[in-house]
## 1
Amino acid sequence: MKKLLITGGSGYLGWHCCLNEQHGWKVIATHHHNKDGVHPSADAYKLDLTDKDALWKALKTVKPDAVFHLAAHSGTGFCENNPEESHQLNVAATTHLAEMAADLKAKLFFTSSEQVFDGTQGQYTETDEPNPKNEYGKQKLEAENIIQSVYPEACILRIAVLFGLPTTVSKSFLNQWTESWEKMIPITAFHDEIRPFLSAKNCTDGLFHLLHQGAQGLFHLGGKTFSSRYDFALMAKNILNFPDAIIYSKSQKEVETPAYRPPDLSLNCQKIAGTGFELKMPQDELKKLKPFFRSGDKAMLN
């Protein structure tokens, strides 16, 4: 049986990847502080990715055939306020992992972000010139460039903002919205911030699709369509059946944030679609989630 090592296995995307079991693959998921965040279908492996010696020991012990490098400090505000700490994980650890994976000939898949763009254009393709304006985007781009240099056969997937089921330790923005709606607390969403909202399930399907194809190079992955955060909130309200939910529309310009928020990060995903991967409509993915949000059936998390 082949082995897949997932870094950030207790994180939001890592948990969903473990949930998406693949025949013929044994999954080992790393965690640092949150062992309970690792889905029970995977073997948990405690690891500080910023410890180079520990990282090398882990790779030599596990001997993975492939690595999903998902671990990151992904909060834009955190990265902006803590650039040195976030750089240690987002760039330095990624550099070491890429070098080691190349030495061991373990196929590497790295999740980057649409934040590598400034958001002034939209419909970005893989050949468009990145121009990150916040620290998180700058670190992701730096990591991309290093990976392409030290391990050209690696696969880099720039993903859009994720939504889906909550995990045992983390939530998406959608979960935060529905929790507010259940308590009749209004939410605010930007009408001038465009995103290609991507379900966590569709994202994990994309990663495994590229794994099975032995893909390399750079790909974009987002939902099949894009919308403003405000329009997505309205769509979620209707599909998930929160008729009394209150949603206030606001402009990005009205809110001061620690990190630059790109206005339009819609992605052109025709390259991955050309490999035979099916892009999903966000509204269809929301419909699949409706039974959970309306029933509170925690069994769906197992």
## 2
Amino acid sequence: MKKIQYTGIVDAVAALCLKAAYDLPEDVLEVITDSLEKETSARGKSFIQQYIENAAIARRERMPICQDTGFAVYFVKLGEEVKIEGGSLNGAITEGTARGYREGYLRCSIVNDPLFKRKNTGDNTPPVIHIELVPGDKLLVTLAPKGGGSENMSALKMFAPSAGKNGVIDFVVNTVVNAGGNPCPPTVVGVGIGGTFEKVAYLAKKALLRKIGEHNADPEYAKLETEILEKINASGVGPQGLGGDITAFAVHVEYFPCHIASLPVAVNLNCHAARHAEFEM
């Protein structure tokens, strides 16, 4: 049994909050840079150049890439041979989030009551924590801060199986096109297919963690990703929704078995600054 100290997790999570806010992942920066050559719209090129400059300033000056530093969403792989000493895993991640957002002067965007009081919690907690138990003695924590602008453009539909492939494609493409400039395109498009109502939304968000442009291992789903991406980019929405060739950088599909009577589909968008960071213990 491997023992991991509560305080060590708190420290690592606090640092993770700053890294995710300040440092754009290399795969994201690479696809943004590559898109500068592919985009033919002068206005679109100008936006992409600003994205590159903004990322450089954020990394150099240690300041947030975006003023919306997002809902703190964690994907955790917890080894079955790991024991947390001194407190709970949820408690450590929550405390680390509060400390990271306070010490980094990151904007706190979470309200305690979604409908009535809507009072800011003051430290960007509680976070959303997805825990997956896995074999082994490692703890892997991935943070994917989720801004309101892109999150608000999410969509979910419980199709009948008869909708088929074309129904799925039309739903995803229309969701992205109708979002326009709200999610700050070019976006990364996470698509969940299958499972249940709650599982398919999780799949769509988890899909956003994949390295940009890395296809699903199943050839049929990989082909589906390519087909959807081509249709999205043929829409002309373009960078910031003001026209151009590149509306999305990638489409990532994750799937799960489902009921014989159902075909759940969910779409979750990330803006061009697809922030995420991780640590392992």
## 3
Amino acid sequence: MHIVIYGTGGVGGYFGARLAQAGNKVTFIARGKHLEAIQKNGLQLKSPKGDYLVFPANATANIADVTDIDLILVCVKTWQLEAAAIEINRVLSEKTIVISLLNGVNNTDALSAIINKKHILGGLCKVVSKIEDFGIINHLSFEPTIIIGELDNVKTERALLLEKLFLNAGITTKLAENIQTEIWSKFLFISTISAIGALTRATIGEMIASPTIKELMHKTAAEIVAVAKAKGVHLSDKLVEQQFKIIESQPYNTTSSLQRDIMEGKPSELEAQNGTVVKMGIELGIPTPVNSFIYHCLLPQENKARSEKTKLN
């Protein structure tokens, strides 16, 4: 199978390397010095589950150069999704499947506004990884997992084929009974830890150790559950408890990609996470005071980062 990894960061780099290791043809979309390093030295994966070097690595900055694509895994940041969808739409064939592994609950809608829904499956992933240096991906923690599902939750032949594809690459994989519930469950986890981590500049271990911050995290999660239920998404009453067990099991020094981006002065997924909770809360009449406080405290930094990014471009 020919797989394109659109966005070779921590997520795309990890899963793309594992799929290449399993013998699939993988093309990596990357930019700048990261692309140059991959083209020259290959893509190096460092992981407690085993290191691997994809060499030589098929890598390009332009997906228009790539043909005969079976699967595209979209692994950019949420604020880059619309531009990515426009480029992806130009190279689709009848057989091409597109799956977003991004954080957030609106990614399928964003894709389907540009790409015919027949190409799209719902998806999400769980992994803590980052670009350590140009051409080097470091998997830090969490069992790397991919969850997929048709938008109508039917277990189609292509969905079963993809499940087998990921499992054969040694990736923990789940074919969802309800992909929207799975996406919202991941959204609850990531939105509970990420922005508050950026606001406090603290690791997960440090935040959990503070009773006050932990209480704020619980309130953040409760607001997300309330918004989801108002949207008609069924989340188990035990979900918050289950997610906090996962949060508390993470290595003490774990930080999220959103947190690292904000702390480094880069544009982040703030709008797609807590910003989305606030906006949906307003639309649905659900109070979200904690999410609103966190979001608006970070918004000036986010706007500054985006302004500087625009100037550089």
## 4
Amino acid sequence: MSSMVIFSASAMFFYCCALILVISRLFHTQGPNRKAVVIMAAIAVALHAAALSQAIFTPDGQNFSLTNVISIVNWIIALTFTVVLMRMKVIVVVPVIYACSVLSVALLWLVPPKYIYHFELYPEVLGHVILSLMAYSTLMIAALYAIQLAVIQHKLKSKQLILSPAIPPLMTVEKQLYHLVVIGVILLSLSLATGFIFLDDMFAESKGHKAVLSIIAWFVYIVMLWQQYWVGCKVRTAVIYTLSGATLLSLGYFGARIVKELILT
């Protein structure tokens, strides 16, 4: 059994342990045992990183296949939420994150296509890729905050919300959402700028949709921030903006590659 399979299986096991600990007491008056969740999740994140290193760094170059990129994004998100779990009330969306992490780790060895690149020859392209991954991950975290915001508002309106230390105040989540969108837009702007500067084929036939959808998503987020600054956004409107931008980015980043790497192969 290869080391990547061992790392992947172990990461999935510990993610599942963290997931069970959260779900079993999600809406309990005391909330889940955060310390136990963080310990399980931290072990899972470390093992996930080890599995990723085995999958990406190959003798032929860096394997940036669709499944590997999806797993990188999930790892960044899982790491972020695991780090902030003890300090911030984000427990509502944690089950989604860890469940997606289990699937993304499974993809590493169940569906292992190759997309080899030599970033050591093109460091400027590596910079663009890192900015793109950070921008996408940040805006996906914002989308998770938007989902959390929608859930809390729905429960408040229907008077179903159980008073629990695990559930954050609505205004706090809304403020954090806008902070994340601002950071994500800055990273996305840098990603688009480096793409225009360093990539000759930014609008090539196979990549043009990614650039176009990313630019449209950028405008969606800019309009959201402009509206919030000048007239204010209702919670529902902010959620729609955030999820629309995230959907456009996801279609741009992964749409064609899903067809090319998983369906046509």
